[in-house]
Design brief:
Elements lengths: L1 H60 L4 H16 L9 H24 L4 H5 L1 H36 L3 H8 L22
Helix pairs in contact: 1-2, 1-5, 1-6, 2-3
């Protein structure tokens, strides 16, 4: 009888240790996804902070390109109003967020195309620095989005594998959506002067 109790207690201890380690592992992975999302938002914020400086620099040289400036400012305003919390990250909200950020990128492309008509602006050191900062930021955004997708993939895979999916279901761990290419992005953008 004593031997049976020892076996029962040992089995319960093993199950408790498994559930605890599995739960803690999923919490750590979910936090990694949250951190990766914060890094993505940080880079978008960096871009958003640079835009007014770039617009004002170009405005000084190209005052009659008001429509282009308005589009950049409007896209930036819309993008800064479109926020998504990691706790409420649904595929639909992720798409809306990507769409708003895509509009900023498109408006910036038009703004940078305007600068081709102003050689003295292209030679301006402030403009060159801002353009380099913006290019670097776009690269950082791309890197952080890739890292987010990798982290989300690892987390999503972990919570879907058996028997972890049982623990994940019991404690409400859910899949996180990925950043995906925007519709039409497979075609190279056309730059017109």
């Amino acid at each position: 009888m004593k031997k049976t109790w020892i076996i029962v207690i040992a089995v319960i201890a093993v199950i408790a240790i498994y559930f605890t380690s599995t739960y803690n592992s999923m919490v750590a992975q979910e936090e990694a996804v949250s951190t990766a999302w914060s890094n993505v938002e940080n880079q978008y914020q960096r871009r958003s902070d640079l835009i007014p400086n770039l617009v004002n620099t170009v405005k000084g040289y190209a005052a009659h390109e008001k429509e282009t400036f308005d589009a950049v400012v409007s896209a930036r305003a819309k993008a800064t109003q479109t926020t998504v919390s990691i706790d409420d990250l649904t595929p639909e909200k992720m798409q809306a967020y990507q769409r708003a950020q895509g509009e900023v990128g498109s408006a910036l492309s038009r703004l940078l195309a305007v600068t081709e008509n102003y050689p003295e602006l292209k030679a301006n050191e402030n403009f060159k620095e801002l353009q380099a900062q913006l290019e670097g930021t776009e690269n950082r955004i791309s890197v952080e989005r890739r890292k987010f997708n990798e982290t989300a993939r690892g987390y999503n895979t972990a919570i879907r594998k058996f028997p972890r999916n049982i623990v994940a279901g019991m404690f409400g761990f859910e899949k996180h959506p990925y950043f995906e290419a925007e519709e039409g992005s497979e075609k190279a953008p056309e730059v017109k002067f």
